[in-house]
Each structure stands twice: as structure tokens, then as C-alpha cells.
User: Fold this.
Amino acid sequence: MAGVRRGGGAEARTAAAVAAYCRKAQARDLVGGAGGNMSARVPGTDRMLITPTGLALEEVTPARLVVVDIPSGRVLRVPRGLAPSKELTTHLAVYQTREAAGAVLHAHPPFATAYACAEPVLPLVTITAEEMFHEIPLLDYAFPGSEVLAAIVARGVAKFPERWAFLMRQHGLLTIGADPRAAYLWADLLESTAKTSLLHALLARQGPAGPPGNLPV
Assistant:
């Protein structure tokens, strides 16, 4: 158990950050019910903290996080009555593939997920979206929590080393950050981008109506 206790201060800070951004993700409607999961690497160690299965993200507390060894995937500590997220293998695939990954968020926000299900290219219609994302890769479908999905995610993360946000076909989104805050912000921006893109498409289909409301300056 000595390996679990190393970096206790860093682990406590990381756990607090994960719990805080889980609550933010639920408050921003990035997840519904008990869906979605988040993890973070404990700085200076080879361990990660991940949310348990069956809890809404708003119910996650630092004491309810599961501790996992990244290289081996071995679960080191599980709070009584809980189990790791079923997407544990997917999170491990990210950390084992991308050394710079410090946190991972998987969520099912409605607008981004709609693009992931309908499978059109998510157009980056704003300057901010274009500058921040450049492109948003769509990862192939596999059953949630499966080793096949983990392999798909690993290939996608390796193929697009400069991308930090991905759509998952028929599933939702996956974002990577240097820390929980960054992973959350990528997800929030991706959902906002998807919403704007859909509204833009609807307005463009409608066409102009009445006198112009915007005059060139």
C-alpha cells in the first residue's frame, strides 16, 4: 500500500479538482443522469483517479474516487460499495498513449452527441472554434467500456496528437487536458460549438427574411 500513499498532497489536490469539475460538468448539462466519467493523473506519479460507476457526476466527492495504476491498469483502491467507471479501459488508453494527458472527460452533451450520432462533419463556424479546434475527429463506434473501444481511442489519440477533443460515434465526446479544468473547458467549448453550428445550419436553411438587421460597419 505504500505505492498508493506516495504523493498524498498531490493526490488530495487532484481529487478535489476532479470532484469540482464533475459538478461543473453536470451543472452545464454535459451529462445526464449517472452518465459520463472523468479521471485525472496524479502529478508526479503513475497513478490516476477515476470516477466510480453508477454515480451522477454531481455526486462525486474526493473520497469516492477510485485509484488506478496507469501502466498496469491495476485498481489500487476502491471506496467501499463502489466500482471503477466502466470506461476505465478507455481512460487508461488515453494516458498510456499520450504522455501529456493529465485528465480525461467523457460526456454525452446533447448537441455534440447529436453530431456524433447523425455523423455529419461538425462545422467550425466561428473564428474561435476554428482557432481552438482546427478539426474534431470522429472516433469509430464500439460498445461502451469494451477493449475494442479502448483500442479505437488509443489509435485516434495517436493519429491526432495535436487534438484534445474528439467525438465518439453514437456515443458522445471525449476531451483531454493537462488537468481537470482543461478537460472540462474543452468539453464545454465543444458542446457550445455544436450548438452554434446547429443553429447556424437552421438559420442558413431558412434564408434571409425581411430587411437586413445587420449593417456593414
About this structure: Helices lie at 2-5, 8-27, 88-97, 110-118, 127-133, 147-159, 180-206.
